[in-house]
């Protein structure tokens, strides 16, 4: 049975290049977080926007502040996969979070479309706020320098 979400946020803690991404939900006043990859956050936010666009609900959560994520929030597990669907005729989406560990049960949540819109807007800002991309190879550049493979750089020490 899916639990109703009071707040849904996607974000990162730490410095650019060393950030840890989290998906944080509040259910019955208790916060829980899931470790998630940056690309998974971006994909979930983009899929949310696609679902909202189909229903002409982009901007439904403009008045909501999803808030940020917090390093001290207990982490349930590392995200292995995500499912997002919307019940036809309702303003409720179902978010299923799967673990990388087969023994962990999946977590199922109900999220309003307004919450989903607020999450998507906030998450895309966080994802875009990382290290700048190299204009030649599109890989992230470190402040200390970048060994671009297009200029015969060495990628062995590159962090994605």
What does this entry look like structurally?
There is one protein chain. With 160 residues, this protein is α/β, with parallel strands linked by helices. The protein has 2 domains: 3-129, Secreted effector protein pipB2 fold (2-Layer Sandwich), CATH 3.30.2450; 132-160, no CATH class. 21% of the residues lie in helices and 31% in strands. It is built from 2 helices and 7 strands. It has a 7-stranded mixed sheet with strand order 1-7-6-5-4-3-2. Helix 1 (38-54) packs across helix 2. The longest helix has 17 residues, at 38-54. The chain is globular, with a radius of gyration of 17 Å. The termini are far apart.
What would the keywords be for this entry?
single chain, 160 residues, alpha/beta, Secreted effector protein pipB2 fold, seven-stranded mixed beta sheet, 2 helices, 21% helix
Provide a short characterization of the protein structure.
The chain folds into 2 domains: 3-129, Secreted effector protein pipB2 fold; 132-160, no CATH class.
């Amino acid at each position: 049975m899916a639990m109703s979400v009071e707040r849904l946020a996607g974000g990162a803690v730490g410095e650019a290049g060393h950030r840890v991404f989290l998906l944080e939900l509040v259910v019955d006043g208790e916060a829980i977080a899931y470790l998630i990859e940056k690309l998974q956050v971006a994909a979930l936010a983009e899929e949310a926007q696609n679902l909202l666009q189909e229903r002409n609900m982009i901007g439904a959560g403009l008045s909501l502040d999803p808030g940020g994520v917090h390093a001290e929030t207990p982490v349930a597990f590392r995200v292995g996969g995500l499912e997002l669907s919307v019940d036809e005729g309702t303003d409720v989406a179902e978010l299923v979070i799967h673990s990388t560990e087969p023994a962990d049960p999946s977590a199922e949540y109900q999220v309003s479309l307004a919450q989903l819109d607020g999450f998507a807007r906030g998450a895309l800002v966080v994802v875009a706020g990382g290290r700048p991309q190299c204009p030649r190879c599109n890989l992230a550049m470190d402040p200390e320098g970048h060994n671009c493979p297009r200029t015969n750089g060495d990628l062995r020490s590159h962090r994605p």
